[in-house]
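Problem: given the chain below (132 residues), write out its structure.
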Amino acid sequence: MNELAVARPHQPPRVLVLDDDHFMLEMLKDMLEQIGVRDIYTEANTRHALSTLAEASPDMLICDLALPEMDGIEFLQAAAERGFGGVVIVLSGMDSGVRDAAGELARVLGLRVAGIFRKPIALDQLRSAVTC
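Solution.
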């Protein structure tokens, strides 16, 4: 059974999207709304995203890897250190080796990885990862 459904029966997950590309943030927000997600937090800044992670307690984190200040891998480490218990989707334009390594590291850190995708993600891929 879907772990998110157990935590919050019959409710779509609360999702934090972290990407420094504002167009990508808007696109992902629109896609999430299309699949029924209503509580969506978008952040382009990793420091703000860490605050949002603590304050909003999202069920899911969609994280880009190529970020200024703190890259996506460092952000995932920080999220794990802060006890993030939600599901992670890794999303990046980097090559598959880098994406897969980031996903494996997230698992080693104790994070639950719902998917690792190349940008731009297709709506069906996102739907599958959000409802897995």
